């Protein structure tokens, strides 16, 4: 699931106390509430994958619904800078493909490696998904 947070503002620069140069964030309270809602309304596939990522079962800590600028990632491993996204059928629609590409490029510019899996991969080949994640954690 991919969420675009549209109510954002430019944050002050930590060095100059002025408006930051292109660093888009959402109001912290709104962002926190949105992430909480996403965690509480996770898709079945997010629940399944989270059951395998949580509590360092893969030897690394993962977070659910982590913010990056105006985007929220499904899962994030800070130590390895890996973002994991679970995509449903809506991501096959042409109108969403440009958005997904833009979002992935944004995350890559921030130094993240982005792994994407389809819902049916979680449903039908969970061990293959876990293997691919483990390969990228090494």
Tag the structure with descriptive keywords.
alpha+beta; Endonuclease, Chain A; 138 residues; 5 helices; globular; two-stranded antiparallel ribbon; 5-stranded mixed beta sheet
Characterization of this structure:
- Strand 4 (63-68) and strand 5 form a beta hairpin.
- The longest helix has 16 residues, at 94-109.
- The chain is globular.
- Helices cover 41% and strands 29% of the residues.
- By secondary structure, it is α+β, with helices and mostly antiparallel strands.
- The strands form 2 sheets. Strands 1, 4, 5, 6 and 7 form a 5-stranded mixed beta sheet that branches. It has a two-stranded antiparallel ribbon with strand order 2-3.
Short description:
The protein has 138 residues and is α+β, with helices and mostly antiparallel strands. It is built from 5 helices and 7 strands, in the order βββααβββαβαα.
């Amino acid at each position: 699931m991919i969420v675009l947070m549209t109510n954002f503002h430019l944050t002050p620069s930590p060095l100059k106390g002025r408006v930051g140069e292109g660093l888009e964030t959402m109001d912290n309270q709104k962002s926190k509430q949105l992430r909480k809602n996403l965690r509480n309304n996770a898709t079945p596939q997010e629940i399944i994958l989270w059951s395998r990522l949580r509590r360092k079962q893969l030897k690394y800590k993962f977070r659910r619904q982590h913010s990056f600028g105006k985007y929220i990632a499904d899962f994030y491993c800070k130590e390895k800078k890996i973002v994991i996204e679970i995509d449903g059928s809506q991501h096959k629609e042409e109108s969403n493909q440009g958005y997904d590409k833009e979002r992935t490029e944004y995350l890559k510019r921030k130094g993240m490696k982005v792994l994407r899996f389809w819902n049916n991969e979680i449903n039908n080949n969970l061990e293959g998904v876990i293997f691919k994640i483990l390969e990228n954690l090494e």
